[in-house]
Amino acid sequence: MTARQADVVLVGGGVMSATLGMMLRQLDPSLDIVMVERLDHVAHESTDGWNNAGTGHAGYCELNYTPETEDGSVQIERALTINAAFEVSLQFWSYLVEQGALPDPAQFINATPHQSFVWGEDNVAYLRKRHELLSKHHLFKDMRYTESPETLKEWMPLIIQNRDPMQPVAATRVEHGSDVDFGSLTRNMVEWLSKEPNFDVLLSHSVKRLARRDNGRWKVRLKDENSGEIKKIEAGFVFIGAGGAALPLLQKSEIDEAKGYGGFPVSGQWLVCQNPEVVKQHYSKVYGKAPVGAPPMSVPHLDTRIIGGEPALLFGPFAGFTTKFLKQGSVMDLFSSVKGGNIVPMMQVGKSNMDLTRYLIKEAFQSHEDRMEALRDFFTDAKAENWHLREAGQRVQIIKKSADGRGKLEFGTEIVAAKDGSLAALLGASPGASTAVNAMVDVVERCFPERIKSPEWQARMRELIPSYGQSLVDDAELLNDVRSRTLSTLKLDKLRPR
């Protein structure tokens, strides 16, 4: 069987692969690129609008990005990093909109205020301190803070109505936050790419084998899930951006850099309200503090969502325990991922995170009324008949060897790449899709090191991302310039009419 020759193979039809495919196409239109997706259409797993929070993660409202230490200080460094990374995504999307490669921004992103809300004296003191630190930095200069009941009625009427007037409460607000339909974003990118020469999308094809040839190229063995036909592609570079399936596929590659990695799967569910009378009373994303022992993905939040152009409210997510790595995966995924190189880290993480495991199992067995009680901490007048449960996507947190050789559970994303740059994979979850562009810039720099150093690619990258090679954390003037452009181009300076 003759293998189809390509320059690049993108495994997975989600936001990561689509972003890298779009970036490489913009840098070098002559590249021959093949996208391989196991399902019958793209953006159907974690990228789908209903399978993620849709928050344009910028650190504005997510309190887990600014932890409070034992001495009472608040760490803001991670929030600064994530905010700058999201600004990179906004720049790239703005360029694509300007060039007609993406449609009207309202089809995939909408201005949605980002707010944090807390209650209780200790939490109010924490939020006040957090605001004081963040608002001094140019990235967060537009953040407002209040403890005023009257202001809170304006900011979040559903949440503040009929609360105990004696309960200390506080909130912050950034007007130009966003709700992102990553499914629509991805489908639009893939649709545009599919019309370009030298770009193929193979749907309903699963990767069965990855093998590096003596010449350094990769042979990718595929199975057509409809016909059963076996196909082969040979490529100089392979990117594995397959969400929960990335770890098993990375293991198939047998690169040295993959050794020691494992995965900790976490499922999720949302309470969803589509009652127009309720939905129209709340227009923002409001994040609170996570319960003690909960994973970061379980930070409770009440969100305006706009998916397929239709508004809804989501509350959650409610985490749960699963052994699947994908929503449409197998219960054997976790067990089959255990290898000789990662069994010690995975056992160590399992042993040291029993409280987390018990928490996830407890969450999975909650009743509808249990979940409604959690919602009523935010929205005291919530009625059970207005809310229904919906499954979210799967998340696979990273397990890796720590410096002492033991196991460590990571809540974030990480690029694992072969030392010769011929293969890369993205592992992990939050902030995930929001920082996809920044992550794919990292892939390009690590896997195309000589080409990215060329004057042509340097100049082109600065067209795609004007802040490329500079620090938005350090340069206030640069941040003001790029943010002014992106807010205008993506219409994030205008709230959607209700």
Strand fraction: 15-25%
Low-pLDDT stretches are none
Relative helix content:
25-40%
Q: Largest beta sheet, briefly?
A: 10 strands, mixed
Distinct helical segment count: 16
- Quick one: overall form? globular
Give the oligomer, counting copies of the same chain as homo and different chains as hetero: single chain
Distance between the termini: 57 Å
Mean pLDDT: 91
Radius of gyration: 22 Å
- Tell how many strands the DSSP assignment holds: 20
Class per helix and strand makeup: alpha+beta
Which descriptors apply to this entry?
single chain; 498 residues; alpha+beta; ten-stranded mixed sheet; eight-stranded mixed sheet; 16 helices; 32% helix; 25% strand; globular
Task: Explain how this protein is built.
There is one protein chain. By secondary structure, the chain is of the alpha+beta class. Helices cover about 30% and strands about 25% of the residues. It contains 16 helices and 20 strands. It has helices at about 15-25, 75-100, 120-135, 150-155, 155-160, 180-195, 245-255, 275-280, 335, 345-350, 355-365, 370-375, 435-445, 450-455, 455-465, 475-490; strands at about 5-10, 35, 110, 115-120, 145, 170-175, 180, 200, 205-210, 220-225, 230-240, 260-275, 285, 300-305, 310-320, 390, 395-400, 405-410, 415, 425-430. The strands form three sheets. Strands 4, 5, 6, 12, 13, 14, 15, 16, 17 and 18 form a ten-stranded mixed sheet that branches. Strands 1, 2, 8, 9, 10, 11, 19 and 20 form an eight-stranded mixed sheet that branches. A two-stranded antiparallel ribbon has the order 3-7. Strand 9 (about 205-210) and strand 10 form a beta hairpin. Helix 1 crosses helix 13 (about 435-445). The longest helix has 22 residues, at about 75-100.
